[in-house]
């Protein structure tokens, strides 16, 4: 496959002010309880594609340059810049060209018994790790937030989602004013953006490591991102799921806002995908399945995510996903009209400025799956975002011959402008997506418990504050925690 140099730079985002009226997984700093279901090795990604110290991550925190829709740019602190040049990876055979060498998703769930490694496995990275105990992960001495309720079947979710969501809202975690700068030792910068940066910190109470996102109030106000910043904080405080980033608490001083979140050591899925070129069918299926469970959970709470893409998917120490960057997330019971997101991933109803609902996330899931399988997005154009919008509205998708037929069938049902045919938007909701034959071998309850080993394990030292997957940045020169007049205090009441 030819080198896609244009994809080595991260994509810009669209964002403007919405004209319509305006949570918690086990922390990576707390070892995740994952039990191996078999003693055999699980097929993994190619050995030459291990993430190096040049890989990047973002925590929904270090922004990429954004395309302006209004006079001000939307550059939330949520995406790190792409790493500097690295040696082009040596690609393994493309999916579909040598199917006999590719792992099946059934192997990811139930590894086959054999005396020796297969030719494919002999080329792979080992994925085994010992089960880890579960213990408290909050930065301070305060008790852990309540544990997540058992997952319901989709049919039950449809009937009880509103009541369940309201009950969960009534029991929202306490995150406001929970910590202070004195609770942490700032170690290094993980990423920077137009109105702040993300720091790796260590708790002075439990010695665990966290990511603290620091936003400069004046810059947030200047770039007209007050509403999105408050929405991000509000949504993160309400959600709690194994595949979503955790917000442990927030606080502020006269100049800055602080958000204490998981430190997810493994870096972005974006980096792994660019180094791999494209993913084999079962690898793409694994990551897509975890994203599907996360979207199902968010939608059960009437939350639209609106910014799904590889840059916003972090890998934890065991290789499982965590969705980050909730700057565009919003509670939408019915419809909204905001033009926001990344051009490549925008649904046609968003581009055409029509009211839209949760179905835009299922469209984005289709684009994500396509990019994982092909290495590029279906509507990408070398010109301006307007060219991408024209392609999206035209709606013509070319599927390479190596794409699995079942995967193509799912993509055709997700990447469709006809809302009466788009999976996830029909009567069956998310269950229609999960029941598609491409996912037929996925054991959803085990995946939700992380009982299935990931196809790739980041090369990091667990629980040691290993930031080798992040670029180095000049450290902040401004002293945090300064007192004085706070002219923007009233704009951020939830912090």
UniProtKB/TrEMBL annotation:
One Gene Ontology molecular-function label: ATP binding
Any single Pfam family the record assigns to this protein: Pkinase
Residue ranges of every copy of the Protein kinase domain listed in the record: 184-439
CDD domains found in the cross-reference section: STKc_PKA_like (cd05580)
Biased composition (Low complexity): 149-167
Region annotated Disordered, chain positions: 1-167
Domain of life per record: Eukaryota
Catalytic activity: L-seryl-[protein] + ATP = O-phospho-L-seryl-[protein] + ADP + H(+); L-threonyl-[protein] + ATP = O-phospho-L-threonyl-[protein] + ADP + H(+)
Enzyme Commission code: 2.7.11.11
All copies of domain AGC-kinase C-terminal, residue ranges: 440-495
One of the record's GO cellular component terms: cAMP-dependent protein kinase complex
Binding site residues for ATP: 213
Keywords per UniProt: ATP-binding, Kinase, Nucleotide-binding, Serine/threonine-protein kinase, Transferase
One annotated GO biological process: signal transduction
Residue ranges, compositional bias (Polar residues): 38-60, 76-110
Family the UniProt entry places it in: Belongs to the protein kinase superfamily.
Annotated protein name in UniProt: cAMP-dependent protein kinase
